[in-house]
Structures are given as structure tokens and as C-alpha cells.
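Forwarding the complex inputs:
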Amino acid sequence: MTLAATAGHPGFLSPTGVEIAFVLVGLATFGAALVTVTTKQLVHAALWLVVALGGIAVEYLLLTAEFIAWVQVLIYVGSIVVLLLFGLMLTRAPIGRSPDADSGNRWIALGVSVAAAATLVWVVVDAFRTTWIDLDGPAQGSTKASGEFLFRNWVLPFEALSVLLLAALVGAIVLSRKDRQDRQNRDGRQNGTSTTNGRGSGYGTSKPAGRGTGTQDRPAAHREDKS
Amino acid sequence: MNDVLDVALRLVIVFAVFMVVPLLVGQAEHKVMAHMQGRLGPMYAGGFHGWAQLVADGVKFAQKEDVVPADADRRIFQLAPAVALLPYLLVIVAIPIGPSEGAVGQVVDAGIFFVLAVMGVGVLGSLMAGWASANKFSLLGGLRTAAQLLAYELPMLLAAASVAMAAGTVSLPGILNAFEWWWLPWQIVGALVFFVAGLAELQRPPFDMPVADSEIIFGAYTEYTGLRFALFLLAEYAGIVVLCGLTTVLFLGGWHGPLGADGLGWVWTLLKTGILAFVVIWLRVTYPRLREDQLQKLAWTTLIPLALAQIALTGIVKVAIN
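Prediction (whole assembly, two chains):
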């Protein structure tokens, strides 16, 4: 990265407009994050998380990392929070306070988060020290710059991450499939003739052995072949 | 000072476009639906062809009482229409309608990511509305909205990524500068996937299961009245404009056309966008609603494989050309 390491940087005492904005947005983000973990209204917590994640995207923008900022919005605000809200609505999303939304682990959680934050701040401060981004020059976090940097210098970590994500994907599929068949088998034992949830069309014909008592002992792989 | 004036002028123009074009689409929908289905209702107001029907609708919405249900989460309920509408305003800023510097609100370096990211935020408005209404139909609508978004976001992104690969840039004007006419057949599958997925994200028929009136009244918007309801409708029409504009820019060559290259590019953009908007309305009138499981199946088993195949094809052709 070609961060402009200017020798005589302006110093901290005469902040520019961008720097002031950065600090203010940072404070707002911090506040939103605090509310996210302390509010007793579950859905409000998810919505405050939107504010916090959006605030981080604005910080990226102020640091000229435009590409990262939009990806942050796309992935975190647009997908992960929607997934969170979806999960909340599917399970339990009461309007108003949930008195049991408190965790007994909150002091441990505070300790862990402070330690993590301290580590990150230390790493970032130690890595960059007095490096200053030249805001007036060409954007250093543009898509082109990010892409070249990523695929010239950091291809191996990038590919390793892809493999990790792929593994997680396969794992998720395996878990959900196994769960479904277990349930079908359980239902099959309890109620020999009924099909489950309308999904088991052909259940009775393709898996006649499922009604037997010995089904739970059959290995998972074998069951998978049958379906 | 000139810079400030320039920015202010651009913002005012974008805002004007944002207020006017969705209403034009709404008016067109009234008339096209009336003709296609032989509806006589909206043909009287104002005399000729019922031109004042939209005005009458606007007045009606403004007159209605703004009701917040007693059990609702007040603030979120009231905030939701703004969250649904504002993203589309932001997206319109980045869509270029002509080749010159003055024909786009603001050139965004990572344009595709910007528009798709911000459009995704709009769905939060529907989710907030669905949850905060304290109504089981609204909650079901919100759930269906979320499920639909999760399913269709992926094919939309993949189709857009294919164009970005072909052009070698993610900037919207950059893509149009690189456009050649033969991209049209080359990217046609991606274009269809993008358009269909976009329709599903807007919850337009035939993908309007989240607001299916015969099952869950009006989904997430059941409890809304008056102007807030009108804002949701406006968000839908703004969404049509944005989707058609984006499809035009990404897949149909935007300002490129067989003739009139100098100075008249914006006419092509508007023409193509208008035709696509007509198609959106046409689909609403002619197609039955997809069932919820059919919706999910279409996304996961048809659109995503098609989008992946398009990306593979794009990659192969790109390598072959170079």
C-alpha cells in the first residue's frame, strides 16, 4: 500500500474537517454499539446494529476506502442483519422489553471485548504509527487499488478464506440434511404411516425400512444413500 | 462557490427526477392496467382518459388519518417508510443517463456495489414495518419479505458481477464506456436473471407473495394508512425506476443506440428504461402469483445456477478475446 508517509504531518492539534467528522462518526458508532448490547428490546438491538455497522461503513468512506465501505453495507447491513431479523421474527421477537434478555456473562463479556479492543487498537497503532492518508491525492482505497493489492500480495490468504467459507457451506448443508432425516425417522417410529410436514411424499414407498425399529442404528451414510 | 452550486444543482435535479419519474410510472401503470384488463374505474377523473386519477389518489392519501396501532412499536413503525424510500433516492444519484459528466448525479467509483448495497438496505424498511405493526399478518409479510430478499440477492449480485467481469470495471459509466453491441447476446442470460431477481426484490407480481392480499391482507404494510402508506407505494415505484434504469445501464447499453450518438444518448436511456417499466407493469397484469415454495425454488434451483453459468461463460469469452 502506498500510504503517504509525510514527514511533517499536520499533527493532532489542528484537525481538518474530515478528521472531525471521523471522530464524530466514530463516537456515534460506539454509542450505537453500546446500545446494541445493552438494550432489552431484541429487535431494537438488531436495528442499532444496523446503525453501528453503517457508521463503520461511513468511517471507511472517510478513509477513502470506498469499495470496502459499500461491501460493508452490502454484506453486513443488507444481508447479515436481514438474516438476524429473519431469525428473530421466526423465533421470538416481542414488542417491548424482554426481562430475560440479560446475560449472567456480561462482566466476562465486557472483559473479553475490552481485551479484544485493546489488542486491535495496539496492533493498528503499532502498525501505522504516524502514517497519514493523503486525502487530496488519488483515492488509495479505490476498487482498482484494493483489487490489485488483494490479488497481487494477498492471494493465498484470500483463497484460504474461500476454502474456509466453502467448508462452512458444506458443513451447514450436512447439518441441515442430517437433522431432517433424523426427524423423519423419529416421526416414522412414532407414527408409522403418516408423512411428515408434507415433505415426505414418497416416504412410505422409497423408505419402507424407516418404519422398522432398527432404523436409528443405521449409519448416517447409509441413510443418505437411500434418500 | 461554484462547486457548491454545482453539487446543489445536481441534488435538486436528482430529487426532482426522484419525485416525478416514479409518479409517471404509477400513472402509466393505472392506464396500462386499465386497458389490459378493461377496467373502467380510473378512466373518469379529470375527463380525458382519467388523467387526474393519480392526483385524486394523492389527495385521498393526504386526507386520510395517520393511524398508529395501539400495540405497535411507535418509533420504528413511523420510521419504516423513510427507511424503505430513501435508499432509492440515493441509488438514483449514481445512475448515468448520458455519456457526459453532467448526465449523472455523482460518479461513484464502485458503482455496482453502491447501488446493490443501498438497494438492499431498503428492505429493512419492510422488515421494520412488518415487525413494528404488532399484527400477525404484518409479521408474516415481513418474514416472507426477508426470505425473498435472502433468496434473490445472490442471483442479482452474480448477474451484476458477470457484467463487471466483462467490462473490467465496477463503475457504472465505466461499464457503459466499454459496452459493445454484441454484449447483448453475450449477457442475455445474466440480464434475465438480474431483471427477474430485481422484480422479486421489489415484491412486484408475480413475486408479490409477501403482500398477497388473498392470504395476508397486505403483508408488512397492512397497518399503514395515509401518507405513510403512500410512501411505501412510492418506494415501490421508485424501485421500478431504479431496477429498469440499472438493467438498462448494465445489460442494454444505456446511452448507446443505433443512431443519434452525439447528444441524444439520454433519449436512449430513457426509452429503454420506459420500455422495461412497461414490461414490469405488463407482467403484473398477466402473470398469476407464485406460491412461496415456488418462489424459493425458482431462486435457488434456477436463477443461481443460470447466473453461475453466465459468469462461467463471461469468463471463458473474456479469456478467449484476450
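The interface with chain B takes residues 43-44, 47, 50, 66-67, 70-71, 73-74, 77-79, 81-83, 85-86, 89-90, 93, 95-96, 139, 142-143 of chain A (CB under 8 Å).
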